[in-house]
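Journal club side-thread
Mid-discussion, someone asked how the predicted structure for our own chain would compare to the paper's figures. Pasting it here so we can look after the session.
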Amino acid sequence: MFSKLKEKLKNWTKKVAKEESEEKVIEIKPKKKKKKEKSEKAEELIEDSKEELTESLEDEAKPQSLLKKIGAKITKIKITEKEFEVYAEELQELLLENNVAFEVSEKIIDELKEQIVGKELLKKEVEDEIREAFKNIIREILIEPFKIADKIKEKYEKTKEPYVILFCGINGSGKTTTIAKIADNLQKQGISCVLAAADTFRAAAIHQLQEHGEKIGVKVISHEYGSDPAAVGFDAVKYAKKNLIKCVLIDTAGRMHTSKDLMREIEKIARVTKPDLKIFVGESITGNDAIEQAKSFNWAIGIDGIVLTKADIDEKGGTSLSVGYITKKPILYLGTGQVYEDIEPFNKEKFIKKLGL
């Protein structure tokens, strides 16, 4: 995903190491005049270097080979603030190109600067040190996800009450399919579920959830088209209590985060059903749009976790990083396809590896 960024870091660290070596060569020259012994040693070094030149590539100039020979004696270098600033702007542009939000890219650059500027690094490990610093920054940005199944079991063992999950997001984000995937996954872990078709604005949405329920063997509570969505959620919770069902998953109508009336509607659903968990579902490929959506829903109802769909076709990865940082909420799942098995718990280390850093 971050292949350009990886290449940029590689080129930059090579350049820094080369410039540092050149500076060290300049420091050696005055010492030749002061002490004869050091001058003789330098001459011997040059002679050794000349012998090695006969075995090197034809396009390598003599001064470069000498620099390599002298540079090999230098074990540590320091990256100056000036050197870092030269490349910071380009690094930030590359982050933005990969759907990383501006404020997140600024944090990454600032953290990277703090970790590497002025620090003594082994010359041969500069690239690895910078890459590892990047990984650590990403680890700090992303909140460690929790397991929904553990939360459900914990509550039910203590209270015998169903665990209520409310899902929100805009139209077309894959919310209804995601709910079915999670319900199917929970059922396979021995957790009974019931679905609430609280998207009463579209008759097709009710029908879609009912079809999913039939396929995965889960009961769907629904009312007529146009009815109060909060009432549907309430009845689903009531049904779960009566039938000793452990989890209620409430589907809601997709709504634009800019619509005040619809945002008030979902606030009402949350008040009535009192969910234990509120999940925002967004598309990983929409970049900054998903970030703004998550911020709005978080402000309206206080989301607890995030599911990002279409992660299988996301070649950048910056949306996951940005949404997690902006909301300070964990990414719980990634949707990776259309079948019920195509959903996976979010794993920070796997995500970092996928970035290619």
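Post-session note: Residues 23-32, 57-74 have pLDDT under 50 and may be disordered.
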